[in-house]
Amino acid sequence: MITKDYKARLEEYMQLAAMQNASDLHFGVGKRPSLRIDGNLVPLSKEPILTPEETEALIDALLTPEQKQVFLQRRELDFGYSFQEKVRFRCNVYFQRGFMAGALRLIPSKIRTIEELNLPSIVHEFTKFSQGFFLCVGPAGHGKSTTLAALLDEINHKRYDHLITIEDPIEYVFAQDRALIDQREVGSDTLSFHRALRSVIRQDPDVIMIGEMRDPETIATALTAAETGHLVFSTLHTNNAAQTMDRIIDSFPASQQGQVRSQLASTLLGVVSQRLIPRIEGGRIPATEVMIANAAVRNLIREDKVYQIDLVIDTSLEEGMISLNRSLADLVKRREISLENAEIYSMNPSELRMLLGA
Predict the structure, then answer these.
(1) pTM score > 0.85 for this model?
(2) Which residues, in sequence order, are CB contacts of 65 under 8 Å at separation 6+?
């Protein structure tokens, strides 16, 4: 049985993570608890190295008895945890080398606006549609969920719509304003993304947010929802817009790819790809690629020429499109980030140097 000491100790770590503006809190056997601050892991040097018993006690302090049972069966578990109604964490507990470990992602209680997130103003446009398919992509831990939350909350404050989110687990908790918002968590409110999506159409939604598209069934249902008059938001772990199109199409058998291309071409609104880059002054700032699905982009998707999308983005600045390199170059020119960090995150460093005249 866990003593209150471990609950208090866990909450001290959580408080420290919030005070230090950390993105993540980690603990595992043989290591000190660590915070990820501005992308770097920082061990808590004053804390002792954790034993197997201490690590298990900290994880038990996070879990309900039902969650503990599922965790021991599955050997890993995703769930949300709210601390004193002020801070929320997206938690993953798992086993490594036979011992328990935990990774907790801090979810700020306040949903920030597009301006507060330093995103391009063109991103506002994706909240104005009544139907279609929008994707936010990029590596894990680079702010995709935060960007989607900003878009959904903007709709919440402006439109009398019904918003349904399907998440694993629920991250940002929305305070209803003009919109009616239902948030469904995979595991507790529904058995799977695919099952929830199949029934969501019967729940009279205007806007649907899918936390992550993990399988072809979920992607297919999301495309159908966008085709049938809904505004659909989701995320993928891809690097840019062109790779996102390939990932979606290639997840289906060859016999279905023609139909998927057609659906994607007719429903896609745009793709925002983002990286959080360390700022010279401290903290992180997003570099973003913005692709808007204009007639040229739709045609390339339909004709299986998505490798040409980068060229359309490069030549469509006046429409609001932004390449990742142009975004990085702009941040370097404004002295927000270093050239060294820009090159690390660029997918084409030589082109970046050309843009900067370096």
Answers:
(1) yes
(2) none
